[in-house]
Amino acid sequence: MTVSASGYDLTPLTQAQVDEKAADLTPDERRVLLDHGTEHPFCGTLLDNKKAGVYHCRLCDLPLFSSDSKFDSGTGWPSFFQPFDPDHIRYLEDNSLGMTRTEIRCPRCDSHLGHVFPDGPPPTGQRYCLNSIAMVFREKD
């Protein structure tokens, strides 16, 4: 078992486990999470969320981002300057759409989450640009 610094199991799910968890996804959720799609800007349900809590992977429930690192980037997608735990994000080079970007995925279920760009605020200078549909928000008690 692979465990993150924050104590979460990062052991990759088997294809059978992913298929089981994906059985209840909507067509739009499948398009983003499994087929690496993107939701339209300014339409995501979590864009304007200002509540305190943690954003989890919609497919496997791994904590991805804390509300403490969320900021308004003006791009139309929920944006964060750092992940919940550095081990909770997987980075891949994405050369689609005629440009080079860094795709971010869940390390446990391999779901597509969004992209990260080097134009975010201090202290990291990073802008993790997420699809609302790829996450579930869990409010702090």
Automatic annotation (TrEMBL):
It catalyses: L-methionyl-[protein] + [thioredoxin]-disulfide + H2O = L-methionyl-(R)-S-oxide-[protein] + [thioredoxin]-dithiol. Transmembrane segments: none annotated. One of its GO terms (cellular component) is cytoplasm. One of its GO terms (molecular function) is zinc ion binding. Its EC number is 1.8.4.12. This is Peptide methionine sulfoxide reductase MsrB. Pfam families: SelR. The gene is msrB. The keyword Transcription does not apply. Zn(2+) binds at C57, C60, C106, C109. Its cofactor is Zn(2+). Binds 1 zinc ion per subunit. The zinc ion is important for the structural integrity of the protein. The active site is at C129 (nucleophile). One of its GO terms (biological process) is response to oxidative stress.
